[in-house]
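Posting for a labmate who doesn't have an account.
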Amino acid sequence: MVKKAVVLVSGGLDSATVLAQARAAGYECYALAFDYGQRHRAELVAAKRVAESGGAAAFKIINLDLSSIGGSALTDMNIDVPDAGASGIPITYVPARNTVFLSIALGWAEVLNANDIFIGVNAVDYSGYPDCRPAFIEAFETLANVATKAGVEGNGMHIHTPLMALSKADIVKAGTQLGVDYAQTVSCYQANDKGEACGRCDSCYLRREGFEQAGIIDPTRYS
């Protein structure tokens, strides 16, 4: 029997790696992206590229409008994206984003009769977002198993986070070994319509450091 999994694909480095890992583990992958009003819309084009080249069985974009509630530099054009190095939880944090994304992924997983969801959250080289930590994932998996027909009937739902404890360099190495083409990905919080990165934001900094520490050429295109 083919194992099915829903894989959250943003178009960035981490989710491209996770898709490759899920495929390597034998899953038939259903890639899910979100048009949530983000300023870096080039990532949606990248998400489609990543899903297609990564061998996803299907690719779906869900339309949400998180810009209607704002509160983040990624969804409110009146808030500037800060350069890397700010302390605390940065203004690029999108309130409840991963909770919303995983909830919809959970619904699609039930429809597909899939018991597995993959997400590329990381708690080592990351921006300090609260919904990227192990405690959040553990709590959401508990919720998933009391909130779904599958969970209640004993067909446990599982949230996989294979990147959680890896450095960005280790992620780059892992993806490279699996043949991920990182030139297809867009990580920048304010990438232009061509997918070119700013080189200044926190995401650009972490990505650049990852390639440098891995000793692998960085294919990122900068504006």
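Reply:
Got it, the structure tokens are right above this. The beta strands are 3-8, 27-35, 58-63, 116-118, 158-160.
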